[in-house]
Specification:
Number of helices: 21
Number of strands: 2
Helix content: 55-70%
Structural class: mainly alpha
Order of helices and strands: HEEHHHHHHHHHHHHHHHHHHHH
Oligomer: single chain
Length: about 375
Amino acid sequence: MPEETEVADDKVGSVSASRYAQIVAELRKLVETATVIQFAIGDAALEVEPMRGRGGSAPADELFTVRDSLHRLAEDIGVSYRTVEGARWAASKWPAEHRAAGVSFTIHRTLAGISDPDERFAAIHTPPEGKARWTPDEASRRVGRQVAKPVTPQEKISAIHTLAKDEDVAAAVTGDLLRRPSVVAQVRHEDKVRAVTELTREDQVAAAVAPDFLRRPAVVAQVAPADKVRAVEELTRDETVAAEVTTGLLRRPDVAFKAMSDDTARHQVNHAQVERGRQAREHFEDTSPVAPAVKNIDRSVEFLDLITACHAFVAAAGRVVPGMRDRQLGDDERVIVHENVARVRATLDWIETAVDTGKVDVDGELARLLQGE
């Protein structure tokens, strides 16, 4: 086993370390030859079409434009137009006396991105610290380009952005990343807010997400009161939901008291009670088999109900009023009591009129008072 391990460690791919060194030496010679060839093509292309100043153009009487000339040259020597164009540009940046022996054409072309000539000519002879020679990735780093093998976090981020320029690819990558809690935890607060806003623009998605948020008390507690009111109004547009929610809220004494302080709300409750009683009576009269017999004793029942109501009111007042001795009501409480006393007086007048004349109709003012308007 130790011998096998030693052999494995001494290999590069499928060849021994010594054979690999031979291959590198042979290929470096070929790369040097290729570099000479590339610069030769670039120099020839420069002779055919010298570089022109920014904004310059060929005289009108010239047969070919720069592009046409380079296309013809590329076709005549059997290489691509991009090869000729790139070689010409690199040759223009590297005069023959500044080209470095043993450095590939690829490195020369990449470092040609250094705009200052003196800096460029010095850089070709100065590999990065700790490196014996320039590599394509190190040259790309020197001019701020994306590298083939990202090492630093920023290089990896740049590579991901490049690969994810397509919207479909970006969407797939984002979905995968958002499934990793440790990644999401490092996203900035404002970016999370923007992401959620974008992700919930579709009504169906927003509707699916909203209930989850509303189940989290800590989230709801941070919602502004005005936004809570708007949310409740939207959520209770359905009559069934509104009825269930309202019933639950009115079971809370403080809420019920504040609600009944609103004249419109109080009127609606009174109206609903009257309407519910009317509907129940109509249902009874329409469906009950004993309804005809009950109608025959309605007058007697109504008399007894009226006497019972008066007795109940007097008894309740006699029980409650003495308990208010030495108690001072607040302004809001006094207003409510006075409003109800006025309603009671109007009701008593109405009872006397009905008993004396048999007329139970009420005028508009009395009706509004009885309804709490």
